[in-house]
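Hello again, I could really use a second opinion on something today. I've been staring at a protein lately and its backbone has me curious. You're getting the sequence in one-letter code plus the fold written as tokens. I'd be grateful if you could look everything over and explain what you see. No rush at all, and the record is pasted right below:
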Amino acid sequence: MVADAQVETVEQYRERMNAWSSTVVAAHQGNSLRWVTQVCHRTRAPLAHCMNVLSALPSADGYLTPLAELVFSKAAAIAREFEALLDEVHWADVFQEAGSSADPSQISAVIVLLSLANAQEFSRRVHKYVLTSPVQILWLTYSPPNVHCADRKRVVANLLSGKTSEPCLRKLVGLFRPELVEASKHGTLAVDVYAFLFELRRSWVGDTQEQEGANSILSAMVQRAPNIEQSLLSSRLTLKKSLLARKSAIARKVANASGRTSGPAASRMAVAQLRDECAAQVGSKRFLDIDHRPERWSPPVPPPMPFLAAKKVKIAVLPIDSWCASYHKRFVDHFTPGDITVACFLQYAKGPNARRWGDKCWLCTTKFRRTINMVVCETSVAGNPENPAGVATPKRKPTSLSVCRPYEFQSSYEFLCSLYDILHDGPPIVLSTRTGPTAQPALNQP
């Protein structure tokens, strides 16, 4: 029996390999492999551009670091590159390479889906964080401190509004509130605050090697002092990273000059250099006042914690959360990347909240864990005497769609939350209707 099972397994493996080899040979004999490879390469070109920006070395004066350059200009430029991929004029050679035997609508659909999948990954992993805190504080150092800067005013106004939940940004506002209030009025910034933030900008690398190095230092400190406070841990990590960077630079400089170096001597020189820089930034008198305060060595006072009674705490669940959770799993299981989620399939709500969705739809781009990522599109149908405007209705499926610019990406949960006010009083959602092949994502005509 075992021998028969082994022979059968070998035969099945041989059949699979024969089918695979036949498919590979057929792909090489046709021209589909060539144009698909070109499409895959070009749609990932903006991601390669992003990697090149993050891999670049900072400028000699420290003004342009990879992260600062990404925040100031490169992130928006890469987003525009993704949007330009949907212009048909950039793909004329691909359509010519495919020949008359290939279906142009299929080629357009592949280009659109691959472009949107890569654009959504860039938006989720990079662009979303560049547009939010805490990296937005780099705009405070975009212009010299005595020059009016509209972007600086915008970011400072957001910090002072109290809407941010980032602990480091709240600490920054607490330390420099008077200076930030003046910056929100005049667009300029105090020199000492600018020097502090500029030093932060120079040391804020943000690459994988920097993160791994910080994680190693954190692990070592936590093992040596398991009960260390978070504020003290953050201060020691910042101090160690600053001293290590200066120690390495001093050791290289001494080695190049004399051919020999000393670790303890480089450490003492790094401490002295950091002390002098701190004194220059905050002012000599103010630095000496801080340096001579004995209470600065005392442990930080923990923030007051609200009293919690010794009973089970019941977490409040909002109606919108329970409503969205009841449909989210079925929604994610029902759709896959490439499906077109037209709003009319959701059934219209009844009552005063009823609303026609018109020409809006959502194209599923990628699937990340238990979440479908989508992009907002506009649809149209062929006009007729009953529907001259070409508006999608529950009985008329759209015949073409175009992606809205700039791209508007949404997760499946955010999509369902946007429907709550309209549909929660209506009939149950029926996840059974798709647009099918009648609507294909197409490139933008010149």
In short: The chain has a mean pLDDT of 75.
